[in-house]
Please model this.
Amino acid sequence: EIVLTQSPATLSLSPGERATLSCRASQSVSSYLAWYQQKPGQAPRLLIYDASNRATGIPARFSGSGSGTDFTLTISSLEPEDFAVYYCQQRSNWPSYTFGQGTKLEIK
Amino acid sequence: QLQLQESGPGLVKPSETLSLTCTVSGGSISSSSYYWGWIRQPPGKGLEWIGSIYYSGSTYYNPSLKSRVTISVDTSKNQFSLKLSSVTAADTAVYYCARLALSWDVWGQGTTVTVSS
Model:
């Protein structure tokens, strides 16, 4: 099983700041990594697929990068609605698409 | 616009079988481009993939749950279903159904299932 480790567990920032979230895979997943945002009481929402492709309707301030085992989700300038939990998920190991444990982005 | 809606009992007794249905609207479950699946989230915890199904009936299960999980599809009703047997308190979670394209791109709102006597 491919294990995804996200860091940090919690990130405290202010609106307008830049957020950098990390996801590391226990083995190469090529570019087959996605990012999701989840707000309290809501289902996860797909932000980025295949490492760097924004999903439909996702603002340009969200960007993804990386390949192999190290990936980054960057939010260029935080809006109040961006404070949430973020999960990465790999699709390299069909059909066991594992998720990371999540990073909570909270208001400082 | 594609929508998914979970339905089923919110309370299940220990050792019994959890049964949920996901109804797909605004699109066909028989599309050859997608798989469909179930993902759960225990209270305060992360996401766990349970299993996936293709419209033809091909199924794929999380190895850690495989012995207790059955996922089926009813294309005539545009629905797919989850059965999880021999449940314990550890199966208490929000259960989501979702569509799988390159990633899980459309989700239901989720339904809370509590395992308790």
